[in-house]
Amino acid sequence: MAVTCPHNPEVNCTDCRMNSLCLPIALELDEVERLNQIVQRGRPLQKDSHVYNVADEFSAIYAVRSGSIKTYNVSDQGAIQVTGFFLPGEIFGIDGIAHTHYVSAAVAMETSAICEIPFSRLEELSMTMPSLQRHFFKLMSKEITNDQQLITLLSKNSAEERVATLLLSISSRNAKRNLSSLRFRLPMSRADIGNYLGLTVETVSRVFSRFQKQGLLEVDKKEIEIKDIDALQELSNI
Amino acid sequence: MAVTCPHNPEVNCTDCRMNSLCLPIALELDEVERLNQIVQRGRPLQKDSHVYNVADEFSAIYAVRSGSIKTYNVSDQGAIQVTGFFLPGEIFGIDGIAHTHYVSAAVAMETSAICEIPFSRLEELSMTMPSLQRHFFKLMSKEITNDQQLITLLSKNSAEERVATLLLSISSRNAKRNLSSLRFRLPMSRADIGNYLGLTVETVSRVFSRFQKQGLLEVDKKEIEIKDIDALQELSNI
DNA sequence: AAAGCCCCTTGACCCAAGTCATTTTAGATC
DNA sequence: GATCTAAAATGACTTGGGTCAAGGGGCTTT
Prior knowledge:
The structure is a homodimer. By secondary structure, chain A is an alpha+beta fold. Chain A is 39% helix and 21% strand.
C-alpha cells in the first residue's frame, strides 16, 4: 500500500485506512471495487465549511476520510441542535433520505476530507449486492440506536454523566482507529459539546473543571488526558 | 370491502384500512399482494403483553393494526427509557436490525393487533422491488429524524413545551387516521409520558393541570379535549 | 506590541423541575 | 358495597443547572 497523506483525494476504498470501519467492512474485495467506482472524493474542506446545508437537495450520503464533521438541525425558529460528531470512517447524511432535501447541516470542525456516495447509485448497487443492502440497513438502524442512547442520556442523566459519556464515546472511537484512547484532542468547542448534550457552555466548563479537580481528567483547552477511566465509566455506565 | 373488526386477524394488506399509512403506501396493487404474502397476523395482544423483549432474537419488524404500542430501552442498570408510542399503521422494531437481538422492548398499551413482517423475507422482497427498498430506507430515515426531533425537544425545551409537542403529535397522527384531532383518549399513562419526555410524573400532572386552568385543555383522566390548539402550537412551535 | 476577537473559565444569584409526603380517584377483587 | 391497589393530583421544600456578569488567555490583524 502506498504511503498516503490523510487528506489525499487519490486514495480509493480498497487502500483507504478506514475501510475496516467504513462501508467496505461488509464487502468482498471485488464488491469494494464496485463501491469504489461510485464514490466521489473532493478536495479537503476547510474548518467551518459546509458539506451540505439545511434545505439543500438530498443526493448523497458521506463518509469522513480524515478530520471531523458535526451535523446539526435548525428548527423553524432558528434554534440549533447539534445531532452528531463524526470521525474518520463514520457515515453521515443519512437523515436526508426520508425527504428530498436535507433537514440538517454538516460542517467540518477542522480541515477534513470526505467521500461522497451518490444515493441513487448506492440504491442501484444495493439491489445487486445483498451484503451492501444489509450493511446499509444496519448502518441506519445503528444510527437509530445511537440517537436513542442520546435520548436516554438527555432524559435521565446529570451534566456530569452526560459529559463523561461523551468523553468515553470519543475515547473508544479513537481506540478503533488505533489512536490513543486516553490522550486526544477534542475536535469540537465547548459550545458544541453543550449544545449536543443539552447543557450551557458554562456547565460544560464547570464539569471539566470539576473532573480535573477530582483527578479524572487533565484538561488543556481541547487536549484531554483521561487519568481515571474507571471513575468516568462509573459515572457513565451505559 | 368486508366490514371488519379492528382486531380481526383475517384482514389482508389490500383491504386493511391502514394501507394508506403503512408499508403498502408506496406500492402498486400487485406489489401489495406480494407483501401481503409475507405478513403474519396473530391474535390480538392483551394490554401489557410484550411483542418482543430486550435481548429477544431479532427476526421481524412490526406494524400496528389496531390499538397502540410503546417501545422502551433498558440500560445496563435497569433504567427504562420509553422511546416511542406507535399508533395504527406505524412501524416499530426497526432498531433491532443493527444487532442480532432487540435492544428494546415493545408492549401493548391496550388490546392491540399487530402485523409481523419477517425481516429476511422483507430483505428478499426489497431486492426485487425497488419501491419497497426505497420506502423502507425512507421509513428508517424518518425514524432517525423523529428521534432527532425528540433529542432537540429534550435538550432545549421546557416541561410545558414538551407536553404541548407530544399532544400535538398525537393530535395530528389521529387526524391522519380520520379520528378527531381535538378529542381523543391518550393510550399511555402519565408515567409513560414523563419517562418519554424526560420529566417526572408530578411535573406532567402539574402541566396538565396548568393547561386546564389556562383553558388550553379539558382533561378527564386519559380523555383529552384540546380547547386552544393555537396556544399549544405557540408553545410547541416545531 | 497593541488592539480586537473569540473561546473558555469562574463566581453570584435564581428558578424550573425534582423529591418527598399526603390526599383523591378509579378500577379491580372478593 | 367493602376492601385493595394503582394512577393521578397537589402542596411544601430542595437543588442542579441556567442566567448574568466579569475576567483571562490565546489567536489574528494591523
